[in-house]
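hey so u asked for the seq, here:
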Amino acid sequence: MEMIPCTRTQQSSLVRRLLARGQARSWRGGHVGLMGAVADAALAYTIHPVDISAGDQFRPEFLAISPNNRMPAIIDRSPKDDGEAISVFESGAILLYLAEKTDRFLPEDIRGRTAVTEWLFWQVGGLGPMAGQNHHFGQYAPEKIPYAITRYVNETNRLYGVMDRRLARVPFLGGADYSIADMASYPWVVPWQRQQQNLDEFPNLKRWFDTIAARPATIRAYEKGKDLSARPSVTEEGKKILFGQTARSVTR
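ran it, structure tokens below
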């Protein structure tokens, strides 16, 4: 499996390029979650970084795979139907695709599958965007706006509470077993200190977090991205590209 950002599997040739932004703290959480997914499923892969601080995401060859000019994206060159290559963008869609491809981390029964997909999309529509705004206004915004910082720190805190209450009832977000719902949310909790949160206030979430952190596949995934994690921070020029995009940016 190659990731396109890109990976190559043992049984298939799935390409995924994980796009890294600069340093570890600037990675989108979903990308490490996808690395965990392929590591858990024993899919070999190679990371092909794309420098989105330099505008590489606007190149036609990348837009052909990810029309939203965002990371991550994959190309599966050996899909289950043995047909032509399939490209997939958006982390939630990719996790679903990989789960269905490998028949792992997504229950077959309707109740279990519904619970996992609920929590997968909860991350896609809630934890990811809100924690992302937390990072932006706390770390990258040129001026510190107290209202915006407080708004997103508080919303992140609320979402941590939602997870904590869920995890008081079940071992994992989707239920009894580890699933793509956990893969999606875990990387967004990794930078809890930068999000101005305290995991000790959420004992069930902390138990879940420590359990996933200790998984061999999680350790392998973070080890795989360690070299990219050491890259320099986003530059001021890079911030203009990242945070000043309009519709015209894609058609320039």
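Confidence is low (pLDDT under 50) at residues 4-30. The longest helix spans residues 110-140.
lmk if thats what u needed
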